[in-house]
Specification:
By secondary structure, this protein is mainly α. The chain binds one DNA strand of 10 nucleotides through helix 16, helix 18, helix 20, helix 22 and helix 24. Keywords: Repeat.
Length: 853
DNA sequence: GTAGGGTTAG
């Protein structure tokens, strides 16, 4: 059967032994190899590649081996090598190469290129040296090959050497070599060197421009990228799909609308708008530029779509919160890969659909593709958002089991998840293990905000300060970290530190970041410096929704209702759309207007749905009830409670009760009490409030009964805590607390202060003492309230003229309020107390809050 | 082609 020269075209799965006893020695032709001229063998080799038949190539290899005659036919062996390389048989190719008695430049070049392509630069360099030792002069092809390896491995050291050799050899005049040199510098991040090579080139092709443009994009120098693009056109180079898609991606990263549209228009002119990669880049561009209609337009017009286009469209919808459209796209995609799944998962997370995200993850595990670190990061983030401790532990275990924990992104996500799922200790454990350098600022920020959220201000602050000691501080502190820490300063009232961080932000050039700016405004406002807050707001370049909400809230903190409503009008005038928070704020602002603003408030409330399509939530109803009852419109408040689509919760009854107290509306107050006690029988703050209602209306008996009941229920008040910052340290006090190191001085100082104030007309009001006790004991309780201790400390240590700033976790009691008024006039000090209800600013015997008690 | 920590309210 095996006949002479007819070489069988075996099916691809037929795999005979390499050195097969081939028909070469059969009887039909006693010495057949001699009869095949090398030209024909070359022909057959080409056929082997064309028909994808490796066995044919191998057969020819053995023919060549058997015949000494062919050994010096370098060209033939070169063809053989390229056949092997086409089939990715590097070892076979190398064997063939090693069999060659006199390899030429082409032989070397093919193998150098083959090694380079797979990143084995050492083997490539060895061959390169060997070649030079043999006196063979490297050509441009070899240089390009070696540079390709350097690009692959970002090996700048070798790359620079090759560059020098290429210059010496005069190869750099070749545009391909110069392009590769640039590419090498770009991949190593040496953008200036790349530019330098580019500037020196005599001849440039479109790849040269593309390389240098993409270098600028990688270096975030979008404007320069765009300038180069202009220059390119002026030099008569039109650009291709690569130039266009690179530029478009630059514009989408640089968020430049006009330039992006200009490039789009240019792509249309070149007829490249139907190109796949250009279309994909356009989808991304318009997603970033928040133009969903254009995204859809581009997507619909694309004649050819790949999985990237579909995923891009999915991301586009998710970006705009069109969750169902995104899901629809996902279901319609003709092909999905893990990136598409990741996009859907991340989109669920971004849009608050945590449970759907977790369900999707289950599905991915069941029938989806192999998960990646992206998948893991997304599911961990989703879990962080859901916030359930138990689920987070499950996911955590899974991630460990799958061996993803060494990835920096995953690690940071895990830490954040622990921080948000009530597992701060676990978060700390991750933090204490050696956190990978790149993710330090992120994990650090997560942990700081977790501690602040957890009511551990001192720990948050000390963590921040320990980070400040790092010498690479400037590299790791960025906008987000600063915004977080400013938030901590604000919520804890660290005025001095807040100011320092403002200065730091200024120095490190990030005050322009809108998030940092918003945080600065809120920090000043919460630290009692409304003026600085307003000044900073006014000098911000740009305001977004959060900025305006922050401004309104700043006014609200100081009970400046009219100003808050003015800010709202301005915001509306400037076209800034409000959100549910805005409405919560402006409705609440109506409590603090100088004249009755009930009708304004009602109109605002009605406009929520009709004009802004924001459905009022229970919180909005609660705020409305507060405003109505605050102005004494109890009937309207009652009607609203009855008609609202929610079951009234404790906050509504509490608001109502508080205002009943204010207007001495005992009968409605009593109803509110009953509701409150059924809803929250265990909440001590309800009892405090109720007791205050009775006390205020002189019903001592009821008040006493209530206290009895409280005792029977075993309720304790949330311990009131006040603190003050002095010399970057938090000094906190509980009632009758003697743990402070300067406790003695503070107590005697306070006693002097009380005596002085009594002389000036302060009368202790023991009705604010809820404990059952003799009158003298009550006074004792009253005098050493935490806020009084903190203020006394502040008065003792503050520099002349300095404002005494005290923070309190719960509301200031009425007696302290009266007392501080007098203290401010007796000592001539300005005293600022921030409590649960906002600010009290005591100055010259008055409080800005008017009669908040 | 995709990703992490934040700023307003509570």
């Amino acid at each position: 059967m095996a006949s002479t020269i007819i070489i069988p075209f075996l099916p691809p799965n037929h795999n005979p032994k390499p050195h097969l006893k081939f028909s070469t020695s059969t009887s039909a032709s006693p010495n057949p190899t001699h009869s095949i001229p090398p030209r024909n063998l070359t022909h057959l080799l080409r056929l082997s590649t064309q028909t994808q038949n490796l066995n044919l190539g191998k057969s020819i290899h053995s023919i060549i081996l058997k015949s000494q005659h062919y050994n010096d036919h370098t060209r033939l062996l070169n063809s053989l090598i390229s056949v092997y390389l086409k089939f990715n048989r590097l070892i076979d190719a190398r064997n063939a190469f090693d069999e060659m008695p006199s390899p030429d430049i082409a032989s070397f070049a093919s193998l150098i290129s083959a090694y380079s392509k797979i990143g084995r630069e050492i083997d490539a360099v060895l061959l390169f040296d060997q070649m030079r030792q043999l006196g063979i002069f490297p050509n441009g092809f070899c240089f390009v090959a070696l540079l390709t390896a350097c690009i692959r491995n970002s090996n700048c050291e070798l790359g620079t050497q090759i560059h020098a050799l290429a210059v010496k050899a005069g190869s750099c005049d070749c545009v391909y070599v110069a392009n590769a040199v640039m590419g090498m510098y770009v991949s190593c991040g040496f953008f200036e060197d790349a530019l330098d090579v580019f500037d020196k080139m005599n001849e440039r092709d479109v790849s040269s421009w593309n390389t240098v443009i993409s270098a600028m994009v990688k270096d975030c120098r979008y404007r320069e990228a765009f300038e180069l693009f202009r220059e390119m056109k002026m030099e008569g180079e039109f650009g291709d799909r690569f130039s266009i898609s690179t530029l478009l991606s630059a514009m989408s990263q640089g968020f430049s609308l006009e330039e992006g549209e200009a490039v789009h228009a240019y792509a249309l002119k070149l007829g490249l708008d139907f190109d796949l990669s250009v279309g994909n880049a356009l989808i991304r561009l318009y997603t970033q530029l928040s133009d969903i209609e254009k995204v859809i337009g581009v997507f619909d017009r694309m004649p050819e779509k790949d999985v990237i286009s579909w995923t891009g469209m999915l991301n586009g919808f998710m970006e705009f919160g069109f969750i169902e459209s995104a899901v629809d796209i996902f279901e319609k995609m003709p092909k999905r890969n893990i990136v598409s799944y990741n996009a859907l998962l991340a989109g669920f997370c971004k849009n608050g659909e945590g449970l759907r995200g977790l369900r999707l993850f289950q599905q991915i595990l069941k029938d989806g593709p192999k998960i990646s670190d992206f998948t893991v990061t997304s599911v961990v983030n989703t879990c962080a958002m859901v916030g359930e401790r138990k689920k987070s532990e499950q996911i955590h275990g899974f991630v460990i089991k799958m061996g993803f924990t060494s990835n920096a992104w995953v690690e940071a996500a895990l830490l954040d998840m622990c921080a948000k799922c009530d597992r701060v200790e676990d978060a700390e454990k991750i933090y204490d293990r050696k956190i990978q350098k790149g993710s330090f600022p992120i994990t650090w920020t997560s942990l700081i905000s977790a501690r602040a959220r957890n009511g551990q201000p001192e720990e948050a602050l000390s963590l921040f300060q320990s980070g400040l000691k790092r010498d690479d501080l400037m590299d790791v502190i960025d906008e987000v970290t600063l915004a977080t820490v400013l938030g901590v300063c604000g919520s804890l009232g660290f005025a001095v530190m807040g100011e320092q961080i403002h200065g730091f932000a200024y120095k490190s050039n990030v005050v322009g970041d809108i998030g940092v700016g918003n945080a600065i405004v809120s920090m000043y406002s919460k630290c009692g410096n409304l003026e600085n807050a307003l000044n900073f707001f006014n000098q911000m370049h740009r305001h977004d929704l959060v900025s305006w909400n922050g401004l309104i809230n700043s006014y609200l903190n100081y009970r400046k209702g009219d100003e808050a409503l003015n800010a709202w009008s301005k915001m509306e005038l400037l076209g800034q759309k409000p959100d549910h928070i805005t409405f919560l704020l402006i409705i609440s602002a109506c409590k603090f207007t100088t004249s009755n603003s009930v009708s304004t408030c009602q109109n605002l409330f009605l406009s929520m749905l009709s004009s802004y399509n924001i459905k009022p939530s229970l919180e909005h109803y609660s705020a409305m009830v507060d405003v109505l009852s605050c102005w004494g419109h109890f009937d309207e408040a009652k009607n609203l409670i009855i008609s609202m689509p929610f079951k009234p919760d404790a906050s509504i009854w509490r608001a109502l009760l508080e205002n009943c107290k204010k207007h001495s509306n005992i009968s409605l107050g009593r109803q509110a009490i009953q509701k409150l006690l059924t809803l929250e029988p265990k909440d001590p703050s309800s009892y405090t409030l109720i007791s205050n209602l009775y006390s205020a209306s002189g019903r001592w008996h009821c008040s006493n009964k209530l206290r009895q009941e409280m005792r029977l229920n075993g309720l304790k008040k949330i311990p009131a805590k006040s603190w003050i910052i002095h010399q970057n340290t938090v000094h906190s006090f509980y009632g009758r607390d003697k743990s402070h190191s300067q406790s003695k001085d503070i107590y005697s100082g306070l006693e002097v202060l009380i005596l002085e104030c009594m002389k000036a007309g302060y009368e202790p009001d023991t009705s604010f003492v809820l404990q059952e006790a003799e009158e003298y004991q009550k006074r004792h309780f009253l005098f050493y309230h935490s806020a009084k201790l903190a203020v006394a400390y502040g008065v003792l240590v503050a520099r002349p003229g300095e404002v005494v700033r005290v923070m309190k976790n719960v509301r200031l009691c009425g007696d302290c309020h009266e007392f501080f008024k007098v203290v401010s006039s007796v000592t001539g000090r300005r005293i600022l107390v921030r409590d649960g209800s906002g600010f009290h600013r005591f100055e010259g015997g008055e409080c800005i809050c008017g009669d908040c008690w």
